[in-house]
Design a protein that fits this description.
- It is a single chain.
- By secondary structure, this protein is of the alpha+beta class.
- The chain folds into two domains: 178 residues, no CATH class; 209 residues, no CATH class.
- Helices cover 41% and strands 12% of the residues.
- The strands form five sheets. The chain has a five-stranded mixed β-sheet with strand order 2-3-7-4-6, with helices on both faces. The protein has a two-stranded antiparallel sheet with strand order 1-5. The protein has a two-stranded antiparallel ribbon with strand order 8-9.
- The chain is elongated and about 80 Å long.
Length: 410
């Protein structure tokens, strides 16, 4: 199977105008959702049918065998891909309903026709109507679209016309199974994966990101003899700030500070995930404050801290390390009106942090937010999730062993 090449060309089927991208190998086009879902089988159904065939002792459908050669299985409901199908179905449905205005997308769908395609005398091409097209890339989105189409009422899309949905497709045709497998490999494993926190920092619908951007755009901080907008000191679009750069931190690190200030200790693990207003914690005795109140308190508290400690950020002390930022934000959260673990009576944030030694030295931070390497250097490679709780405990328990260590009380 893995070396098979299918030579019989497609001469009848669904007529479509295609543009040649690579002669005899790849074409592309725009197609409506109704016809795409008619032409491309539902991967989830194909997989389920194959399982039932095996259980009953029947021969597996050739299409299912071929798909299994070039795709990973969707798996059970708890598998990562199956969960992703559900999440994408919700996302696409929201886009189709108009919830996102123009800020949403379905990626180009990459299909494979084992049989060659070619235009007829009129210039029209034909796509195989049954069991002839397999999704090489964006199969998750194809599966999600099938799911919505089967039960539109579950997504508030009872009246939606899939014929109005335009989708971009590319089709590799007449290439072997081995070549198709290679394309699957290259599409999924080539390149550097996008850092999750970086991608999250670009989410305009996320509450944590929204407040982060508002703070960046509105706050000025001391800079030299004057002031500078915070936005000029936050690096966007990159994963790391160099030691000599003017910027204090990346936007994703600033968002970690905002997120942990919103959610407290729970935010340490949620900093690289989506945050909604409804995630703001309550203790069951008080109602959640209005969204505008949450935004105002966060911006005032975090903004004041950044202004008061600008020199520490300019100098890129330990206060800019992701783990320290996470523990610091979770500590700030104890001063918020919605905190379920508020500061003790009479204790302020300033008093709690007064004696913390922010220098990037192992004697203060080793084993908490940093570690000594075998060469004797201090490494700050641990992220918020790795060490944020250790930093939080040290900041909030001055008389503990780690609390005394970061305050220089050896």
């Amino acid at each position: 199977m893995s070396i098979t090449t299918f030579t019989k060309p497609v001469t009848t089927g669904f007529p479509i105008q295609l543009s040649v991208v690579r002669e005899g190998v790849m074409v592309n086009a725009v197609i409506d959702g109704e016809n795409l879902l008619y032409l491309v089988n539902d991967p989830a159904k194909v997989e389920e049918d194959a399982k039932r065939a095996v259980k009953a002792g029947y021969e597996i459908d050739p299409y299912a065998r071929l798909r299994a050669e070039v795709q990973r299985p969707i798996g059970t409901a708890g598998s990562k891909k199956a969960k992703n199908v559900g999440e994408y179905a919700d996302y696409i449905a929201a886009g189709l309903r108009g919830d996102f205005d123009s800020a949403w997308s379905v990626p180009q769908i990459t299909l494979w026709s084992p049989r060659p395609l070619s235009p007829d005398e009129s210039g029209m091409w034909h796509l195989p109507i049954r069991d002839g097209l397999i999704a090489l890339d964006a199969e998750t989105q194809v599966t999600a679209l099938h799911r919505i189409k089967k039960n539109p009422a579950a997504y508030d899309l009872e009246d939606f016309d899939f014929g109005e949905l335009k989708l971009s497709i590319e089709i590799f045709h007449g290439i072997s199974v081995m070549a198709a497998r290679q394309i699957f490999h290259d599409r999924n494993l080539k390149g550097v994966p996008v850092d999750k926190s970086l991608a999250m920092s670009m989410d305009g619908r996320d509450f944590g990101t929204t407040v982060t951007r508002k703070l960046m755009e509105s706050l000025t901080v001391p800079f030299g003899e004057g002031t500078a907008p915070l936005s000029s000191l936050i690096l966007t679009g990159k994963r790391q700030v160099s030691d000599k750069a003017a910027e204090w931190m990346t936007m994703s690190v600033l968002r970690t500070l905002i997120s942990t200030a919103m959610l407290g200790k729970a935010g340490i693990h949620a900093a690289s995930t989506g945050i909604e207003y409804e995630d703001i914690p309550t203790d069951g005795n008080h109602s959640r404050p209005e969204q505008a109140v949450v935004q105002r308190e966060i911006m005032e508290t975090v903004g004041h801290f950044l202004q008061q400690n600008a020199e520490l950020f300019h100098a890129k002390t330990a206060i800019t390390a992701p783990a320290v930022v996470a523990g610091l934000g979770a500590t700030m959260s104890r001063t918020m009106s919605w905190s379920t673990d508020p500061m003790p009576e009479g204790v302020t944030l300033e008093a709690l942090l007064e004696n913390v030694q922010w220098e990037r030295e192992a004697k203060y931070w080793s084993g908490i937010a940093a570690k000594l390497t075998h060469t004797g250097k201090v490494s700050w490679a641990g992220g918020a999730r790795d060490s944020g709780h250790k930093v939080y405990d040290a900041l909030n328990n001055p008389d503990s062993e780690t609390g005394m260590q970061i305050r220089g009380r050896f």
